[in-house]
Specification:
- The structure is a single chain.
- The chain is of the alpha+beta class.
- 24% of the residues lie in helices and 27% in strands.
- The strands form 11 sheets. Strands 26-25-33-29-34-31-32-30 form an 8-stranded mixed sheet, covered by helices on one side. It has a 6-stranded mixed sheet with strand order 35-39-40-38-37-36, with helices on both faces.
- It has 6 domains: 22-159, Agglutinin, subunit A (Orthogonal Prism); 167-300, Agglutinin, subunit A (Orthogonal Prism); 313-442, no CATH class; 444-476; 488-573, Phosphorylase Kinase, domain 1, CATH 3.30.200; 612-791, Transferase(Phosphotransferase) domain 1 (Transferase(Phosphotransferase), domain 1, Orthogonal Bundle).
Length: 794
Amino acid sequence: MATCRFSSCMLSMIVLILSIHENPLHADDMLTANQPLSGDQKLISQDGKFAMGFFQPAAGGSSGKWYIGIWYNKIPVQTVVWVANRDTPIYDLASSNLTISADGNLVLLVKHLKIPVWSTNITNNTATNSTVAVLLDTGNLVIRQDSNTSNAIWQSFDHLTDTWLPGSKLSRNKVTGVTKHLISWKEPSDPAPGIFSLQMDPSGANQYTLLWNNSIEYWTSGNWTGDSFTGVPEMSPASAYPNSAYTFQFIDNDQEVSFMYNVTDDALLTRNVIDVSGQTQAWVWVDAAQAWVLYFSQPKSTCDVYGICGAYSKCSSNAVLSCTCLKGFSESPRNGNPGNQTAGCRRNVPLRCGHGDSAKVKNQDRFYMVSGVHLPDKAQGTDAANVHDCESACLNNCSCTAYHFNGTCLLWYNDMINLRHDIDGLMDNIFIRLAASELPDSRREKHWSIIGIIIVGLTVVSIGVAILYFLHVRRRIGHIYSGDGSMINFRYNDLQFITRNFTERLGAGSFGSVFKGIIPDTATVAVKRLEGLRQGEKEFRAEVSTIGKIHHKNLIRLLGFCCGGSKRLLVYEYMPNGSLDQHLFGKSNLTLSWSTRYQIAIGIAKGLAYLHEECRDCIIHCDIKPQNILLDESFVPKVADFGLSKLIGHDFSRVLTSMRGTLGYLAPEWLSGQAITSKADVFSYGMMLFEIISGKRNMERRASTSSSVEFFPLLVAEEIPKGGEVHRLFNNELAGEASPEELDRVCKVACWCIQNHPDCRPSMREIIQILEGLKPVETPPVPRYLKLLADGQE
C-alpha cells in the first residue's frame, strides 16, 4: 500500500514538472521569444503594482471576447489601464499567445490565423535576436534589447488607450503632426475605440481638449499659464492642489507641445481616464473604502458632453445622466448595450415630405413645442418676419427637423443633437417636426390665431404678475431680520428673484456656487446652490433644521433653505468683507495687520471648537481653508460651510469629490485610510494658520528661479528648534509689528497641528488656550508628512 502511494506521488510530481516546462508561469516582468504568454499566465512588474495578460472586461466577462491588457495587480477591483488589441478581440484563448516574433515585434497570434491579430508594427528593428518586452513599475510596457535597459524601441506609453497614468504624456509632434492621445472605450464592456478623445489642442493652442468623433470640441483646459491651465482651477497656485503629491510638466518647443503629470508617492494609485460618458476623470484609490474615489471631472455636467444622448433625445443631468426620447421618437437599437445612450432615438413615423404632392405634404407634417430647454447647436438662421413665416420656412425644406423663433428664426436640419433640459429656468422653446399622425388633436387652422391671443394675453398677465410677485416676495420674506430667528423655507422662485436669476456669482465653494441676493428693503444675503447632493427631502429638512439652531459668533448664520424636487439651496447672512483668501493673497487692496490676523486665527479656532465639542453631535467641517473663512464688517471671522459635512455625510467618495483642488489642506489620514476625526480639521487649520501669519501660499516659487519652490511650513518647522530666528522668514513689515511671543506661539501651534499622527495634534480648545497665552507650548518635532509634501514640489 505504501509503495502504491509513493509511486502515485512520484507520477504526480513528474506530470506537474512537465506541465510547468511546457507552460511556464511567467512570475517575472519579462517576455521573450522563447517564453510566450498564454492562457492565465501574466507578467508582473517588479514592485507587483501592475500585471499584464489576457483578460475579459468585468462588465462583459460572458461575451467570450479576450484581450491583452495591463491592469493594477494588487487591488480587488479590475482596473485595466491599457489594451493592445482593443478593436480585434480573440475568441479562442487556448490557441492564442503573445510572443516576440522573428522580426522583433510583439505579436498576438492565433494558431488557425495566418497573420497576427495584433502587432507593435516596429520597423527597422536591428536587434531582433535579443528583443524582449518588459512591464515596468510605472505600468509602461517597453520593448528593448535585453542588454540595453535604458533605450526603448517601442513603449505602450506612446500608444495610450483610455487611461493617462503618471509619467505618460499627452503630446503633439509639431514636425510630424503625430499625437499621443486618449480615446474612450466604446462601452464599459467593450474596449474598442469610442467617440470621445482627449488630446493636446490640434489648433496649436497650449491647452488640451475633449473632442467628439475627433471633430467637435466640447471642453478645453484653457491655456497654460506657467504653472496651471486656466480652465482647471484645481491646479492653480490659488488652490492647494500643487501642495499635494502631484507635479506637472508642460513642454512647448520646436519639436513638440506636451503635458505630463507625476506623483511623488509611489504608494499612491491614481489615474486619469477619458470615460465612456465623455468626461475626463481623475481617480485615486482609497484602501479604507476599497474603491476608486473620483476627485476631478470635466465637464462638470454630463449634459455638456457633446452628443451624449444622441439624436432627438433630451439630456437631463442631476445626480445621474438621463436621456429621454422626444415625443414621436423611440430608442434606437443599441446592440445589446442599454447603457449606451449615444445611439439616440429614431422617428416612429417617417415625415411625409418628399413623398408626394408638396402642397399636400405641408399639411401632413406638423410641429409640437418642447419648452424649458437649452437650444441644440448647429442652428441656421433665416429671414422670417414672424413665427408663422419661420414655421413655413422649415416646412418648405424636407431636411428641416425643428425651428425656434424669438425675433430671429433658427432652423435645424437632419439629426438634432445636444438638446438639454434647462436647469436655470431660461425657458427657451423649440418646435419639433413630426408626421401629422403623431399629433392627431392639432388644429392647424386655429393655430396662429390662438398663439397670437395667448402671446398678447401672457404678456399683459406676466407684467401684472411680476409687479404683484415683487410686492409679494418683499412682504413674504422681508421678516428675516425681524428678530424672531426663525428659519425661512424659501421657494425656488423667491431665490431666483432675489438673486436676479443667479447672475452675481460671489464664488464657488464646496459642493456648489454662491450668489449674491438682495431682499428688498431688508437685507443682502448669500445663496448657495448645492450640486450633487443626493439626500432625500425629508432628511435634508431635518439636517438643515439642526444646523439652523447652531449659533456662534464665529460661525456663519444659516437664514433659510430651499428644498423642492432636485433643488437644494442654502441662504446665509452676507459677509461684506468677503473671504479670508481675498485678503491674504493679494486680491484685496487692504493688507491685514498682525493683530487682525492673530484675532482671526483665534476666532476660527473658537468656531471649530464649538463644532467639535459644544454641539449635540460632533461636527467635523472636512474642508477648512481660507476660502471657507468669511469676514464681517469688523473683520470678525466666521467659518462657512460648516454644515455641509453634516448634510453630505462622511462618505469617502462624496467628501473627497467635494475636496478636489484642496488636497494641500487634507490630513494624511484621508488618503491612508485611517478613521476621520475632528483632528482632521486641526490639521487643515494648521496648514491654513501658516498662510494667515505669512500672508502667502504655503508653496511659492522663489524669485531667483521660476522652477524653484519653497515650502513655508517646512521652513518654519525646521527653524523653530534653532530658537529665536523664526521672524526672519516673514515679511519685514509684518514681522516688525508682531509680538515676538505671539509669533513664536502661533508658529509652534501650527507645527503641532500638522503632526502626522492625529493623536499628536492638540484639540481646538487647547489651541485657543495656547494662543490666548493661558497654556504653555513646547517645541514641536518636524512633521514627517511635511518633508513628503516638500519633496513632491522640487
